[in-house]
TrEMBL record:
Signal peptide: none
UniProt keyword list: Cell membrane, Membrane, Transmembrane, Transmembrane helix, Transport
Coarse class of the protein's main subcellular location: membrane
Pfam families in UniProt: MFS_1
Species, as recorded: Alkalicoccobacillus porphyridii
Annotated protein name in UniProt: DHA2 family efflux MFS transporter permease subunit
Compartments in which it is found: Cell membrane
Amino acid sequence: MTNNQSDPFIGIKKLPIIAVLLTGAFIAILNQTLLTTALPVLMADLNIDANLGQWVTTAFMLVNGVMIPITAFLIEKFTTRRLFITAMGLFGLGTLVCAMAPTFEVLITGRMIQAAGAGIAMPLMQTVLLLIFPVEKRGAAMGMVGLVISFAPAIGPTLSGWLVQSYHWSILFWLLMPIVVIDIIAAYLFLKNVTTQRSPKLDSLSIILSSIGFGGLLFGFSNAGSNGWTDATVFTPIIVGAITLTWFILRQLKLPQPILEFRVFKYWVFTLTTLIGMIVFMSMIGAATIFPIYMQTMHNFTAFESGLMLLPGAIVMGIMSPITGRIFDKVGARYLTIIGLGMIFVTTFLFTDLTDSTSMTYVTVVYSFRMLGVALVMMPVTTAGINVLPRHLIPHGTAMNNTMRQIAGSIGTAVLVSVMTTAAIRHAETGEMGMLEAEISGVNTAFMVATGISFVGFVLAFFIKSKGKQTETHDSKAREQKPAIEHS
């Protein structure tokens, strides 16, 4: 295959496109974690309790999760530049509403508008990067995505903890506004169309079913951690979501132009790598939720200190993601995934014996090695799965991958928090240990469950074939065809 055939975008400047997309992704992910340590201050200022306060995160996650499955349709309907500018425009509008919000209701409205833009921008960014790079260079491209995905949430809690000590919480949103405006201007100047427009028909019922289905699951699992599995706010939306989602899937399989193409799961490698990615994400997000609780409520560390504890691990992941991507391009995903999941399994097990005197150094070092394992797995399995898809299914593959991870993150958080609280209550009621000891025992039990989940992923990693044995299943005709590169 010639160089032109392997890289149909050889004639365009990729660096400005990459910079624009990664900047948008960075501020979208940064925004998602920026309010975590600022929540107590925000609650006091708006005179709301914790149950209402957590909706600044939950509402964002719900709308974000509902938007992701629709992006495959939007990517095929609109040009890259127009869709990205629209997404960042929505995000910017939501950020402005949040910055000027006089009441909690206005703040939630702004967060939902933000989430609509972020839900479009993230899968679009991954799709474009996968399209403009040939298969043999996609690992390095996705490594850059990994850097952004890990570094943004790393500095979010620490940055917000520092800022709200000296300024009003609205500074967190005003801080984002100039970056959003600059990114929109840069997108107008440099972003070109690299996707193929197919003019798919809008099936309104599918949009409704998708929103209720994915939204119901995310809402139910989000409530499970705090309300328990038997609460009506948990099992009702999960049941409704599951039934609606089944209807949505069956409808997509019958439509000539589905909103989200579930036939991507006919590709075994994509299905396997998506499942492994979900397991890693479930373990990663769940642990990131439990650690601040353990550090702040059971170990008397401040929010700023607990943010600092997570920072080295996220920096390690950020540094390693581009390196891992280049290694993937040379050796494939198999050995990286086996080593990475082995590290996740071992380091998660090391967190099953925490006490109220466990040193911050121990937690920080083990967590850093754990995130190194995540870096070895996350982007390689994503890229390996997308690489087996024909070009026209890549938007559907990235949308499906992001959707499954969003759901896995919600389930992982709900399950681990639920296990933690249930185990703590059980130990406290028996009278065998004091309340603090019971709470820490609950954390250890949650990490035992996370260890089991990690082990399942470790076993699945052995089913990934080595690079030399993988059979290319691309639609070469679709891959080699150079799409029209437009400026609008």
